[in-house]
Amino acid sequence: MDLALQLLFTGIGIGSVYALVALGFVLIFRATNVVNFAQGEFSMVAAFLMVVFAVKLDLPYGLSFLVALAGMALLGALFNLAVYYPLRHRTYLPVIISTIGASILMANGMLALHGPEPEVLSGWFETPGFLLGPVYFDSQYLLIIAVTALLVALQYWFFEHTLLGKKLQATSQDKEMASLLGIPVAAMIMITFVYSAVIGGIAGILVAPVLFVSIHMGATIALKAFAATIIGGFGDVTGAIIGGLALGVIETFGAAYVSVPYKDGFAFLVLIAFLIFRPQGIFGERVAEKA
Fold first, then answer.
1. Which residues pair with 273 in a beta bridge?
2. Banded pLDDT at 105 (limits 50, 70, 90)
3. What is the band of 288 on the pLDDT scale with cuts at 50, 70, 90?
4. Buried b vs exposed e over 132-166: b needs ≥16 C-beta within 10 Å?
5. Can you give the C-alpha Rg of the chain in angstroms?
6. Burial profile 237-273: b = 16 or more Cβ within 10 angstroms, e = fewer
7. Which residue, among 20, 27, 25, 45, has the nearest Cα to 36 in the 3D structure?
8. What are the C-alpha distances in Å from 46 to residues 73, 173, 262?
9. Residue 137 pairs with which residues in a beta bridge?
10. Which residues are 130's β-sheet partners?
11. Residues whose CB falls within 8 Å of the CB of residue 135, separated by 6 or more in sequence, listed in order
12. pLDDT reading at 287 higher than 50
């Protein structure tokens, strides 16, 4: 039982990162009807920005965090203008291919700038953690869980209780009708890309002290987050959060009780099971077409 509680805490911490990246997938999908396969690279770029500002330039950690997020907001805007906007009137396939190309460009750009060697980023707190009963609460995992919970709560308040949030929801549900109602659709989509880049960047910065900062970290996180969105129900915000947390717990328990080298495979075994038995996901609805 002591080990199970420890694994549960660790799994929720890792799952919170997957949930944040999955949230970026869902937001862009609902706004543009395409999957942004560069979402994981947003996390990777933000982690490298933190290494540059906090480690190499030796800026204060809090200032480095804010500057890195500002850089991610700029990257999200440039991504929208260069990758999505020129293809906005095309079918979804060219846009998806464009996001894959952008992810490869970002990964190779970081490789050219920083080299293949992984970087190390320290955590926010000097205290590594504390022991409460049988469970050791790592300070970085606590920070990840707390920030994820705060962002989810703020997002709920923003979308449900602000005019801009309701405009963003209207745009995601029906862009043509939103345009007829006077909502600036292009601006709403721009905000969505900026917000998704910042969310992905926060996830990357939070998980960087737990993992090594490398060009491969974005792809690994993105694959798990993409699986989480499918398990939760593609396009559903609640499903993305629940799916991310569930995957984190499943792979942590699988690594402890089955096999560490194959821990990444457990998430995809669950994904395959959902695709076979419930392809619409946990919160998705089955769509039927008339013959």
1. none
2. very high
3. very low
4. eeebebbbbbebbbebbeebbeebeeebeeeeeee
5. 19
6. bebbbbbbbbbbbbbbbbbbeeeeeebeebbeebbee
7. 25
8. 10, 30, 28
9. 130
10. 137
11. 2, 5, 6, 9
12. no
CA–CA distance, 274 with 69 (Å, rounded to integer): 35
Residue that is written with structure tokens 């629940």 in the block: 242
Whether the pLDDT of residue 64 is over 80: the answer is yes
Minimal CA–CA distance to 121: which of 69, 73, 75, 53? Answer: 53
Looking at residue 33, the DSSP 8-state letter turns out to be S
The structure's pTM equals: 0.88
What domains sit in the chain, N to C, each tagged with a CATH number? Answer: 2-277 (1.10.3470)
Smallest CA-to-CA distance from 34 within 245, 197, 189, 224 is with: 189
- Count CB-CB contacts under 10 A for residue 55: 16
Q: Which two tokens stand for residue 266?
A: 């457990």
